[in-house]
Amino acid sequence: MLYVTGLIRNTMLAATATAAIVFTAQGAMAEDVKARFSWKLKGEYGFFYLGEEKGLYKDAGVELTLGEGAGSQAALGALIQGQEDVVILPGIFAISAIQKGMPVKLVALYQPESPIALISQPDNPVVAPKDLEGKSIAHSVGETGTSYLGVFCELNDVDCSKISKVQMDSQSRVPQFLQKQIDLVSVYMTNDLPVLEERTGTKFPTLDMTKYGLAIPGMAVVASNDGIENKTEVLRNFLAATGKAIDMARADPDAATAALKKVWQAGPSDKVVRQQVEATSASIHSPSGQPTGWIDEKAISDALKLIGSVEDIGEAKPLSTFYTNELLTQ
């Protein structure tokens, strides 16, 4: 009996020691990944924090550092300077930068269509493209929602000459709309819309531009060409863990909300953040049968046409210059 008890005890000790060795090895093998957002915290980023909290990145051998940003241009600059390993930003900005010669690539595209909508007042609703005619809309330089309004009009047989596009600075757009000085303003359904509706207590009529064919590449992960070559495996592991985090947030938006709120205590209410998380989950999709973040070549070619509709981009670079799906395969 004593022999058996001793044998069991020794076996358990050996198993514990083995497990400790494994965990120590995993910790030792963990590689740093510095990820920078293009903007301040918002519900769109909830799944990253949920994945971090649940240990998905550590399990994948990734020591993840997440940081807020101050715009896509600054984020891409930090990436090129080697301050970050990846940046998370609207894909359309990365595609434009690559066409201009920046040595980076999209390595995942979570939102093939940016979740952008035009909102109007309940007493003057715009719910279909044709309703735009005769209305005024706020526009600021570089604003995604209205920069490609001409393309949207063409797709939906709308006479754009009958829409008054009012130029103003970005900070004035929403106040002017709320004061009913203009009829429409563009918003991200994953960010601005829940905040505005809670603040005003108003359910705004919404024209979802993606439902009417406007496909502007949204949230993407971008890495430098050097990083893709030199940190291939750790970036692959980062993307695999992020795919799991997206699935986890979709299944449990409350958990994603709570994880984000732990680092965003000054953010909006839990209700608003949850709405942002859910809207983000709804906006993330990939081609059938492909891993989350898979980039369809057509999304790149269509984006180049969009950019070319508002600026001279010269001869488009080969599509392989803009993206790789290599890091999404295990």
What are the defining features of this structure?
about 325 residues, alpha/beta, five-stranded mixed sheet, three-stranded antiparallel sheet, 14 helices, 10 strands, globular, disordered N terminus
The portion of residues forming beta strands comes to: 5-15%
Shape: globular
Helix content: 40-55%
Lateral arrangement of strands in the main beta sheet: 2-1-3-10-4
| Rg over CA atoms | 23 Å
Question: How would you sum up this structure, described in words?
Answer:
There is one protein chain. The protein is 44% helix and 15% strand. With 330 residues, it is α/β, with parallel strands linked by helices. Helix 11 packs across helix 12 (253-261). The termini are far apart.
Structure at a glance:
This protein is an alpha/beta fold.
Helix-strand blueprint:
Elements: H1 2-29, E1 31-37, H2 46-53, H3 56-59, E2 62-67, H4 72-80, E3 86-90, H5 91-99, E4 104-109, E5 116-119, E6 136-139, H6 144-147, H7 149-155, E7 164-167, H8 173-178, E8 185-188, H9 192-200, E9 206-208, E10 219-224, H10 225-230, H11 232-251, H12 253-261, H13 270-283, H14 297-308
Parallel strand pairs: 1-2, 1-3, 6-7
Antiparallel strand pairs: 3-10, 4-10, 5-8, 5-9
Helix pairs in contact: 2-11, 2-12, 11-12, 11-13, 12-13
